[in-house]
Amino acid sequence: MINIPILSFLLIFPLVGIFVIFLLNKKDEKYNKKVKEIGLWTTLINLIFSLIILYNFDLTESSFQFVENIPIIDDLGVYYYVGIDGISLPFILLTTFLIPICIISCWNKTIKDINYLIISFLTIELFLIGLFISLDLFIFYIFFEGSLIPMFFIIGIWGGTNRTYAAYKFFLYSLFGSMLLLLGILTIYFYTGTSNFTLINKVDFPFLLQLWLFLSFFASFAVKLPMWPFHTWLPDAHVEAPTEGSVILSGILLKLGGYGFLRFSLPLFPDAVEFFTPFIFFLSITAIIYISLIALVQTDIKKLIAYSSVAHMGFVTLGIFSRNIEGLHGSMFQMISHGIVSAALFLCAGSLIERKEKKNISFYSGLWKKMPFLGSFFFIFILGGIAFPGTTGFIGEFLILVGIFKVKFYLALLAGTGIILSAAYFLRLYGRIFFGNINSNISSISDLNNYEIAIFSLLVFLVILLGIYPDLLIKIYELPINKLIIN
Amino acid sequence: MILNDFNLLSSEIILLFTSLIILIYGIFITDDEKSIKNIFYLTIFGLFFSLYFALTFDQFDIYGFNKLILNTHFSQFFKVLILIGSIIVCFISYNYFNHLGILKSEYFFLILLSCLGIIIMISSSSILSMYIGLELHSICLYILAAYRKDYLKSAESGVKYFILGALSSGILLYGLSLIYGITGATDFIEISNKLKDVSYVSNNILIISTGFVLVLSGLFFKIAAVPFHMWAPDVYEGSPTPVTAFFTTIPKIGAIAILIKFLNIPFESLKDYWIQILYIVSIISMILGSTVAINQKNIKRLLAYSSINHMGFIILGILTANQIGIQSVLLYLSIYLITILGIFSCLLCIKDEKNGHYLEEINSFSGLLKKNPFLSFSLAVLLISLAGIPPMAGFFSKLYILISIVESKFYLLAVIAVITSVISAFYYLKIIKVIFFDTSENKIFCEITFSFKFFILSSVLLTIFFLFFASEVISLINKYSIII
Lengths: 487, 484
What we know:
heterodimer; A: mainly alpha; two-stranded antiparallel ribbon; 21 helices; 75% helix; globular; B: mainly alpha; 4 strands; 2% strand
């Protein structure tokens, strides 16, 4: 099994899918349907392959597995060096799981230029998987920044009225951050003479250099995550993006920041991490409380969920930088759980908005009587969002709080208010939309169709499964995370 | 001996004879389509023949014609680049001028002659042959800029270019005369030997530095680096589009080549001085090129400013004054040539449906996606590549430049380069936005002939899949980046 370049298959399938879509005859009557089918099959094959990888993954091994090492640019010593460990595998599974869901979610809709949308999905899947498996800094960077291009098109072409602005803001913000990351990577490259992650990991950087490098990596990951003062692109991007775009954005793209911190910042710059920890705690706590308060006064459904994402990501950074076993486990769990829950919330919001094309909370009320299915699914996901015991959200935030409690008591106290606030804004959102008198606007609204029910049931299953049996996920990343602390 | 000298110049000689044949042939024919087509084929044939000789010539580091000409790996690389570029320009200009009804034999004559001038300039090893080549191609460019006689802006741009260009040539010549006056030598190596004497230099520093700065200004004018960039936007806008494509690429590549040669051979000992000059010039070129372009409405003006920005980047590679810097410049120029010519090929396919004019306003591209997805995607890929976003080829050229300056520890420059490239990404995205996001639909008529399709497709594929053959390209460039 080891001799087959199984990780590269994950990259090759989307590429093949894109080529097949280009080759299809556009004049064919069933063109749109065929495009969707090809997209779905490619992503499903990828999902199956990633499950095969999971099956063959050695849980007792903390180093990289399925490693492939092929030279690309001899002159610079850049290698196509890929491999996975327990940290990257959950993200790969999340990606291969969410992209087919996006494609199923646009199965029944009439979307203009659906072929380009499917191509964008496949491209973004290609880049994201490439990003999670790459262990060479240059290759990582190529995938990291390349993932901006399809997202830019997804927001810009299929977005709402203000889509151009949102697409620009998203793109330029991220581009600026990642350009600084590139400078950091170059400095590392010249300091160590290699871009190979495992070799760099053995190098100790001098303290001052660590500080600069940490900041350059931080610029990029903080924008992606997004952390508090760098988050302003996110609400715009989410509000304007189509439902599927929001799902990918909040489900996977936001996790790149946390993944970057775990993969690069923590092991490479330990002294700088320690130096900046109070600063990061300050930003995270601000994000949790301040952004939660902002979320409380939102009138737009998608904007509220977007702000809640920023607040939840504040927990993630808090956990990562607490640098103890509970905090790190919690952050990792929180990222995956938030990937599922926020994707589900955006899908719910999307199915509502696509029926009436209104994003205002006040436009809807008493929806429970009209859409009981949506109401019940939405409620479970909201429970996940407010970290209710029995859902995935609980495990992550609980562990993070334990971790941060070990560091400073008052930090845990402040972060704890975030959970209360999240209950406030989520329940307010839910109450306004689903309870009360039936608004005349929604008298003719229809409940979920079969596709949506299928998607939501799957997501509910995952939310509850991981909520009551978290070991399923923790087992995968346990060893490499523990290794982070020992080092 | 003489025969050997001619052997050295075989590709130049072919160009000269082809151009002369075209000139004579042009007298005897009427301007009907068939004979113009013959001339077109003749030009292409001459260029290919010349390219063949440039590619197969394998005697390096030999002087010819009393040390006027020196053929090195470096000059051969640029020769090939320029000939390939000229071939593509000839192909993409045929339809344009034919459509306007002004395709005459002179056009090809001028292209060939300017190509000849640039090649002579590149392989020169003396200030004399350098100036001859420079002036030969400059004069052709003045005429080419004003080639659309019936169009006021074209005439304006020709006159503007001529006045400023003649001035800058004069300045350059004056600088060369000062250098000759103080060193008593025309040969690059001899000048360099003279300047290696530290006491000699410090006694005459005023004249040497004046002459040197004057020559540099003349060369900066040619590559339109700030503060010698004023002509570029107007000339680019006014000139016929294929000529603009020619201006953006070929003379600039030639001027960069001679700039590298001039700085690194005769003035190698004054490295500390010229690094400071280039430092300032590169910073202001990058900043101005990226900021001023934001508000441009005309795509040719926008590309003019974007090329100023790119020249700033290239100067970064030159000012590191080491091998990896030169390599990064060669890589940058090759990718730049492919991308820019690809973009111009796309632009030359897009016409207004009503009056058949070629579209130049950026806002008029809306609706291209519906009309022709192939062109839209090609433009998007090429523009993203120009913006330097991976995995396109443009990223690798920027990466290499950044590698060279980080290696030389110019961190401030690296940060400025990064910031300006983010700003410049904005205006490339603006064009993509008009094509992909705008809902208003302009009446566009697209006509893609086979040769256009071939060029666009090959440049797009080269741009996307550069990663897979980057290793080969870079090792090739390493071989050809030795100046002396």
